[in-house]
Request: fold
Amino acid sequence: MLRRTQLLLALVLLTVSQVSAQKMIGTETDAQKEKRMEWWKDDRFGMFIHWGMYSGAARHEWVKHNEKIDNAGYQKYFDQFNPDLFDPQKWAREAKAAGMKYAVLTTKHHEGFCLFDSKYTDYKATNTHAKRDLVKEYVEAFRAQGLKVGFYYSLLDWHHPDYYPIGRYGRAAGRTGGGDFARYLVFMNAQLTELLTHYGQIGGIWFDGMWDKPDADWHLDETYALIHRLQPGALVGSNHHATPYPGEDFQIFEKDLPGKNTAGFNQSGISALPLETCDTLNDSWGFNARDNKFKDPKDIIRTLVRTSGQDANLLLNIGPTAMGEVPAEAATRLRTVGAWLSKHGEAIYGTRGGPISPRSWGVTTQKDGRIYVHVLEWSDSAIVLPDVPTVTAAIDFETGRPLALKRLGGNMVVQLPTGREDEADRIVVLRR
Ligand code: FHN
Reply:
């Protein structure tokens, strides 16, 4: 009864506030929007964290769907959830050491379990052995390391009875045969209000799961307006795999570089919005004890370089164990990337995509009148680049030594440092 009254009250408050919020979004100029997003574009690299009850199953975050587990069968992961070793400061230190500048944590994934103390559900960490608001601890720890915090929120919900009609996935996840989707949206907006009012300044909300019911009326304009009203600075992105909707601030590509679709998720081309690629260190997002397909650190660095060259961010995932530990395979990879960034970060942070469009051999980034040519796959001793007439000199990033630069029929032929062909990235700085 109390929960119903709370939801009704939330509905009234939301409706009133959405009207003024919608007006506000409409008045933001392009320049204001660019300013709002500047920190995020400058940061370039963030940590994605998939953590929930599924981490206890240790068989992929989709275990409830994959193994057709109903609510009763899934209850044991709730009962067992006891992250004794959860030390968000450790996570934050790992993120910082990796050179990441912001983070996005799954506050609620498709299973419906909330890591935060929401008054609109009992299905939350505070009711488990954890007995703590884990989102609060994450926020405090990451902020203390100077990292911006963001929240992932799954629109799709395999647990909530009002997520009805059920969508494409989790059909055997034990939901009832009825429910009120309008009430679900009120619940969702009420939870988002909690997330945006209880934890201080939030970098952004990262939605997922709309692809489960792409044709449902999600009233996105209302939800987005709500977010922008509660936190005008927060960014909104949704991983719906389609062309972005009004009110979204950036476009997300999953497990692929912007515009590519090798993994089968991305159904749309590149829009005019700022871009982000999200990717995994192995094949899974949530902790999966059977998934040992961890990527070569060099390839991870190259993905970061290629996203920067496309003027995009990289949100790189860790899937901590149910106890709260970052798997060692993930931690070592993060440290390798961090060590590389500590030397080469100048050519990544604060840059924008370079004047030469991405090529099979690599990409360019640019900042402060310098062009960084990132040579990723090329073994010859010189490279041919389209001429950028303002360029006056080429320099080896690593040693600061000049490299030969010749102009030839509308191209620049640039000498490459030799003997370093195996490195993740050879950077040539072009000075103007
Ligand atoms: O189903 C989810 C998946 O578990 C994970 O959260 C990723 C992250 O981009 N998004 C969904 C798949 O598109």
User: Anything to note?
Assistant: The pocket of FHN is lined by residues 61-62, 208, 239, 254, 265, 278, 285 (CB under 6 Å).
